[in-house]
């Protein structure tokens, strides 16, 4: 079966906040994310695969409502093809930190990244947080350029990667 990723498919793809019923599809997407881009996320594929479904379901339920943490998905019907999360920054009340951004390879380049970030941005504004921050591994030029196209600017701040000491991340910001 071939997945249509052309303009018609993009128009039919819903960007929305996760719901508790999305847990199984969200787990499948998370495992895909970790297999495809292991350096971009804070857990390993093996750790995620070993977690029971009930933990995935609890996480999805937690991020499906409320102002402190949210996950947005690209849902064309069937398998999920994109994700972006947002969480409140503990020391900066007007800031939402974007995390776990991913678009399935066959769907890249068609605007889903911007749509997912826009979903997080709208939620952030509704929660009274007018600014967004994200981190990109230094050397991931494809992601860096993609975020620049979405209006993010490099702040010049560099931080250690949270799980791989040999890597550094750069911080980018924009208005929500």
TrEMBL record:
The keyword Acyltransferase applies. Signal peptide: none annotated. Residues 13-176 form the N-acetyltransferase domain. The lineage of its organism: Bacteria, Bacillati, Actinomycetota, Actinomycetes, Micromonosporales. SUPFAM superfamilies: Acyl-CoA N-acyltransferases (Nat) (SSF55729). It comes from the Bacteria. Keywords: Acyltransferase, Transferase. This is GNAT family acetyltransferase. Pfam families: Acetyltransf_1. The keyword Metal-binding does not apply.
């Amino acid at each position: 079966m071939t997945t249509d990723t052309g303009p018609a498919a993009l128009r039919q793809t819903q960007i929305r906040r996760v719901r508790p019923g999305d847990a199984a599809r969200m787990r499948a997407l998370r495992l895909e994310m970790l297999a495809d881009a292991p350096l971009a996320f804070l857990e390993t594929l093996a750790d995620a695969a070993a977690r029971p479904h009930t933990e995935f379901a609890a996480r999805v339920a937690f991020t499906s409502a409320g102002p402190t943490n949210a996950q947005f998905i690209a849902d064309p019907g069937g398998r999920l093809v994109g994700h972006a999360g947002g969480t409140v920054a503990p020391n900066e009340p007007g800031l939402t930190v974007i995390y776990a951004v991913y678009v399935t390879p066959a769907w890249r380049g068609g605007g889903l990244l911007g749509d997912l970030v826009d979903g997080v941005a709208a939620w952030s504004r509704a929660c009274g947080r007018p600014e967004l921050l994200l981190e990109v591994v230094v050397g991931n030029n494809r992601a860096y350029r993609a975020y620049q196209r979405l209006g993010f600017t490099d702040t010049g701040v560099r931080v250690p990667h949270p799980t791989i000491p040999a890597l550094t991340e750069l911080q980018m910001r924009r208005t929500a």
